[in-house]
Amino acid sequence: MAHLLIVEDDDLLRDGLTDLLRQDGHTVDNCADGLVAQTWLNEHAVDAVLLDLGLPKLDGMSLLTWIRQRFESLPVMILTARDSVDDRVEGLVAGADDYLTKPFDNAELTARVQALLRRARLPAVQADKRSTTDAAPGLEIDPAIPRAWINGQATDLTQREWELLGLLYQRLNQVVSRDDVAAAWQSESAEPTASNALEVYIHRLRRKLNGSGLNIRNVRGLGYMLEPA
User: Fold this and answer.
1) Range list of β-strands (E), 8-128
2) CATH architecture of 127-228
3) What is the layout of strands, in order, in the sheet containing 76-80?
4) What is the pTM for the complete model shown?
5) How many other CB atoms are found less than 10 A from the CB of residue 227?
6) What are the sequence ranges of the domains in the chain?
7) Domain 3-121: which CATH class?
8) For each of the chain's 229 residues, which pLDDT tens digit applies?
9) CB burial class (10 A; 0-12, 13-18, 19+) of residue 9?
10) What is the DSSP string of 136-189?
């Protein structure tokens, strides 16, 4: 399990989240304001941060900016009551890896934490900068937001496309089964996925990968493989 830091000024919520995530097997510490969190992060190593935006002394967005300047690859999930699209975009652009609005379901929170930690361990997102390999020089995947670079040109992806491309990229030249994708998507989001959705996303990604030197091949009866074209 992981070592998590919760930065939340609401005492009841902070204690409840701490108990919940400890019951899920994690080691959890917490702070009530941004300045204390800054000091704590300078002195301790953690696997992920759960961050409220409305913090005293140093607000959550400023703390997020500070984290990205010093710990570029540290996973951060924003937990906030600010639920507008502009607020979400601002948080993700500032460097958050996930954004969950209050009130939230405990089961969704724990699933998102697991997904956040799992993505952080993927080869495609372990580097502090956009990742690439010699086998796929035409493709770079952003580790923080749904975006990729095709031969140096930025291409926006939907969340599902990003997750699917990351899974295929992680297993370059290996078959990814439909069950593998279904399991990853089920843990990434509580939203149901239509039975034909995978084919739709594969079709979209094939179009977006045009010119990258890579192709998604349908391996009959087995699944899909990302490979050099």
Assistant:
1) 27-31, 48-51, 76-80, 98-101
2) Orthogonal Bundle (1.10)
3) 27-31, 3-7, 48-51, 76-80, 98-101
4) 0.56
5) 17
6) 3-121, 127-228
7) alpha beta
8) 789 999 999 999 999 999 999 999 999 999 999 999 999 998 888 889 999 999 999 999 999 999 988 887 788 999 988 878 888 888 888 888 888 888 889 999 999 898 888 877 654 443 333 444 455 677 888 766 677 788 777 787 787 888 888 889 888 889 998 888 887 776 554 444 455 778 888 998 999 888 888 899 999 888 999 998 7
9) middle
10) -TTEEE-SSSSEEEETTEEEE--HHHHHHHHHHHHTTTSEE-HHHHHHHHHHH-
What percentage of the chain's residues is helix, strand, coil (to nearest 5)?
A: 45, 20, 35
SS3 for 6? strand
Amino acid at position 83, single letter: D
Burial letters for 159-196: b for 16+ Cβ neighbours within 10 Å, e otherwise? ebbbbbbbbbbbebeeebeeeebeebbeebbeeeeeee
Q: Hunting for tokens 């995947």 — which residue is that?
A: 141
